[in-house]
Amino acid sequence: MDRMSARREAASTSEPFTIIDFQLVLLRRMADHNPELAEDARRELGASVAQMREANRRFQARRHARGRTTRSFYLSLLGAPEQTVTRRIGDLTCDALRWRVPLWPDLRFEALVGPNGAVWNEWLVRAPGAPAPVLRTVDDLAPWSCTVDEASDAFPPARPLEGSAPTRWGLSFMAPDALGTFREVRAEFTYGLLQRWALTG
User: Fold this and answer.
1) Partner of 189 for a Cys bridge, out of 10, 12, 134, 169, CB 3.0 to 4.6 A?
2) N-terminal to C-terminal alpha carbon distance within the chain
């Protein structure tokens, strides 16, 4: 790395990072599947395309500078969480740290943190007390309408699928169409939020 690159890298990890910057990072990934929704949300934040790219660059620089994603990474990035909940997953205990994301007032960004401080998972979940969407048929599966857990609970038994990137998840499940015929659905999520789906059978 040359001196100029090193200076840019140092600046990326020292400049303040705001919740607006973080939301731009989320939108950057969601724009791959829903560019129009992401564009409207970016404008709502009052940010330019260049600002979204820069926010993502700085986020990645901070993450790579630490070597791995940890509790301290998100605390330094987003400040104290709104809520911390201890959760058991099988025989393991972890902490679920949740932060507000104003673009989605009924959702929270959640990081699951293991005993050694490593982040096991990071995605959007429904906020405590916020009404969950009503999911009865495939027509209810609108982009950004539900989380991974909500789709899985609405159409059991859902089968998890490997995502195409660390921030992406997939689910395969059976759901009725408008005529009541059950069809196989493959749904794709980014940061835990539904992006798109397709009928596969």
Assistant:
1) 169
2) 50
